[in-house]
User: Fold these one by one.
Assistant:
Number 1:
Amino acid sequence: MAQTLDAQEIAAGVERLAAAIRERNAGKPIALVGIRSRGDEVAERVLKQLAKDGPEPEFGVLDISLYRDDFEHLHSNPTLQESDISFPVDGAHIILVDDVLFTGRTIRAALDALSDYGRPAKVELAVLIDRGHREMPVQPDYVGITLDTRRLDHVWVSLERTDGKDEVRITEKESA
Amino acid sequence: MPRKDLLDIASLDREEIEHLLDQSAPFKDLFTRSVKKVPALKGKSVLMLFYEPSTRTHSSFEVAAKRLSADVTNFDVAQSSITKGESVRETIETLQAMRTDYVIVRHKASGLPGTIARLTRASVINAGDGAHAHPTQALLDAFTIKEKFPEPAGRKVLIVGDILHSRVARSTCTILKKLDVEVAYLGPGSLVPKQGADKVRRFTNYNEAMAWNPDIVYLLRVQMERQDVQYFPSLREYHKLYGITDARLEEIRKRGIYIMHPGPVNRGVELCDAVMDYERSLINDQVENGIAARMAVLYWLKPGGV
């Protein structure tokens, strides 16, 4: 049985993220950094929401391929894309943005990557979907949608710019 | 699909070449960060096995490996047992016992890196073998050209110099043809191979070659140390006939032609001093891009067999 979220539910999730970020940081300079791939697209949408009634935050994109901890288990190394952080990271208040928070390993890698750009004053985490099952001590500061999943379930996120449509599908995987 | 070794350009398909060239760009971006190092190859070991001296290629590979956080060991040939008559096979068995992940080899014998690749689980990268191949030079050259011409197909590159003995000419020509770039050779008749099946144009006269309208003039290094047989009368003569003189540089500037050279440059032979300040000289870009291209190669290869 596959569970799905449609474009409207995704839009509502982005809205909730933006509202929470706005509420807690009204008037303060912040920077959104999206994690490739799809975290950057979520960050763009949140940025658009925030820019409607406030100053536009700084924006950056981070590729964490080179910081992963699972090279040994991969048949081929992930294809690297460009990171683009053009604002000074030193002293910045950065909100990392990703599509799905699962084990927390991606965020661990993102924190390592970010620290090679400089020393932020503060780093927070915003995720469109929190599906649970952490393997690292990582918790989000802002969540759009909380999903109740099982460890072996697959959460497939499609977003307009990256995949051509907005959709989230959760498929069950038989435990081996 | 990753490979275990990189021995030459000829065995790579177009898709693999495009992948490596695309991957070089994000690696180059890292060089502008305050921390230029990434942890991708943390804990991996890279062995530099140079049987022939090379400052540039050697240090470029070393910087590339270190920026990926690998541990680099130099097997210094002058001090090693190779000079005591140890065979390559024995050396490799020793290296195998050291559990090296990557071996970067330069040797005067064509094909030696391939032999080593068959004898070890480590990934082997050919850093130049005889007159055979120098694949990472070809990749950095193609990457440098793509930075200026994102769609390089149909562009014209004139390679000037000792084509016959040059692994750079061989590998770079091979990669350019795979990217549908037009290639022509210019050099003394004694150093340009006879017309083969590869459809590369041959020129022995500078003006005729320039009438072909190249976008890039690629100067090969005159190998002073390999001139035990005289292929041309003198260096002064070579400069006059095939070198970039002040007068030729003016014409090249007017026509907006880019200049490339694998280094190190023999000033007053392949080119005059003024070329070093020429705004369309890509020689320094080639050095920087060499590190990025070699990082892309190290990141792509998978030791241990695939």
Number 2:
Amino acid sequence: MYEKEKDLIGAFLRGEVDRRGLLKGLGAAGLTAGTAGTLLNMMSTEALAADFDWKAHSGKSVKLLLNKHPYADAMIANLQAFKDLTGMEVTYDVFPEDVYFDKVTAALSSSSTEYDAFMTGAYMTWTYGPAGWITDLNEWIKDASKTNPQYGWDDFLPGVKASCAWNGQPGGALGSEDAKQWCIPWGYEQNNLSYNKEMFDKVGVGVPKNLDELLTTAAKLTKDVGGGVYGIGVRGSRSWATIHPGFLSGYANFGQKDLNVSAEGKLSAAMNTPESKAFHAKWVQMIQESGPKDWSTYTWYQVGTDLGAGASAMIYDADILGYFMNGGDNKMAGKLAYAPFAANPAASAPTPNIWIWSLSMSNFSKDKDATWYFLQWASGLEHAIFGATKMDFVNPVRASVWKDEIFRERLKKSYPGYVEMHDVSAPGAKIHFTAQPLFFDLTTEWAATLQKMVTKEVPVDEGLDKLAESINRQLAEAGLG
Amino acid sequence: MASVTQPGTAPRGFRISKRVLPYVLSLPALLVCIGILIPFFSAVLYSFQRYRLSQPWARQFNWGENYLNFFTDPGFWNTLRVSLLYAGTTVILELLLGLGIALLLQRRSTVNNFISIMLLLPLMTAPALAALMWKLMTNPGFGILSYFASLIGLENFRWASSPDTALLTVVLVDIWVYTPFIMILLLAGLRSLPTQPFEAAALDGVPRTFVFFRITLPMLTPYILTATLFRLLDSIQQFDIIYAMTQGGPGDTLTVFQVEAYLNFFQSTNVGRSAALLIILWAITYTLSNVFIKNWLRLRERARGEA
């Protein structure tokens, strides 16, 4: 039964037939989508198991700490496949993002053995790694006896993969030769423009191409759309999360940095240069003229929901926020469009700073080898394809998924312009921060300074000089400056 | 047939000597005390260390450096100022409102009892939830309070988003949540006051203001002090309302002790500075408690005619 179909799927798994050919063949054989999916999953599992002993840790159990997120939802939806493949048991706790990282910090700082692996961002590993809370995953990735030969470590997008690797030296380049792989990228976000096409058409404005145009377009939208709609949504809460999305993406596009690293490895503040001050002045003006009225309380959540509800005309934030707001029950579903954004008119391409949801292994895990089995499955190609084509696992971190025809067509059909935006900005996408242990101190203070500038408590020039002075003092106190 | 214990013979079974018994009885209190003291002394120890979780290799005793740094750190002085201002403002306003409401509800009646129960509802709301509720109500775009503000000519009133009105906004939430606490304490106090002095004053035709300031208020002072002490200690350690509404912003407008210590520990993983901030907060609350308790004891003694 289904022998022909099995042969076809087998050819697909060996790379002899592409996805389009597979679907065409299965359709011609009269298989329903459900049966085809079951067959494909079954044979994918068999193929995965062919060259590697996935049952080596059968009967063991791992426990995960997860953030409530579509990536976690996709993994949970596919978890049975892992259990069938390995004979392992997986349990997990899921927490909302508001408290998630506090939970991670509490678990790791107390050397808790409860969790074997957890979701994290690359920035967090700059704390967790030097503290000795997480494991350098190179030990497993490079061990052929512990890693499936089909794992495809080279398939990960280079900038994303490198952003998860750091040698632990303050100011050390991400992804350097001696870097430790603190986490495995899982899904990532670039920061670009997501905008309401209907509102743009109504007002008769085009997509802004640089920061100056962004200011004027946002101001015109605020003035002309009506109904209390404001021009541009960006984050503003007193948190590091205000700095890393659109703000740093635009800032980096002007060649500006957060910190200078001297030849001796000493760090110093770099945000009070004339160019930086000019950028800050425009950013502050943009928020004052065209941002939300209560900008200083805005997290990703408010930025996204305002776009989805039609309260804002565009956002300069995570592309996946624009993705999610263009579907579901959102009022503006189907009306949003996307555009890559280079803030600097002289820049040849966008340079989005990125946020990477990743998977890390706790150093206090009771069974690291078994945990690695889970990690390599969860970050493997099969699960990535499952997530990208059947769930909302965007943006995938594997090059082959971005080449997948079904995935690309799905995006093109439901989210016009999204793939093109990704392809244009992906080459310049990376973490533009300097990796160092005071990351959260400095970025939180930076956000607080931005708030003071927007509320006119302090002029931009003076604010940045004071910020640089404070940062230099903190770096010196920590022995880094 | 019931057994009879002979005088001078102890019952069979486990016996504890009279010398040991007091220690055994106080053991639970001792264990609780140890449970409190260990974290406290750990915090004291950390506060004398340069201790960042992200730089474990640099961990060392720096003795008083964390504290000395505060003297030259404008951020710390701002934290101290904002914490005291917040605590002072909320307690004074809640005391005035709570006393006023308690006086209005003093007479026992079905309506007054019902209203006093209804007024307790905010106290049953988790402060963080109350803050989120107020965050929605004060949203400049669609908040009902913003709408009311616009009706009285306050267009674009930015509530917690503006450094000029952020303190006012979180104080309003605090008042909404905690005024009932003071109201119920003072109402209980008012209703337990002896009736004779008031009856005598009424017979003599003493004016109401005189009765209030010369009889009610002095007799109510122990209750007022108790309510003030509880609220002051709680208020100076405020976290949930401020963090849920503004995370300490805009800028450094609302970086009270607890918010600053929380951010230092959970975001910056700067254990040393966070612990030092909390020890200073403890010293402030300890001092305030002592002042209030001494006054409370003095008033109690006076009431008994011992002073």
